[in-house]
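User: Okay, second chain of the day. Same drill as before: sequence in, structure tokens out.
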Amino acid sequence: MDDIPRSVILVLLIITVLISVLGTWTVMDQLSSTKVPVNVQPAPNTQGGGLIRFHAIDPNTLPEPQAQVGTNGIITFKVEEPKEEV
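Assistant: Same drill. Structure tokens below.
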């Protein structure tokens, strides 16, 4: 069995590099031109209110979730300066 000539290996190597560069270029072009639609709706005026506090907890102490629940809703945050106590 004869060995493959170096010229054939060189041509195959050049073709492989060209395909790799063109494939990477195509994927990067598609990623940069992808637009994600964002549905932004204004929050409705409501009379209600609430208080939400956040604190950090150790994630290792959390119980396992019992089941996945499918829900949707609108959450609006309004950041206000703390009121000074007299």
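Helices lie at 6-33.

User: Thanks, on to the next one.
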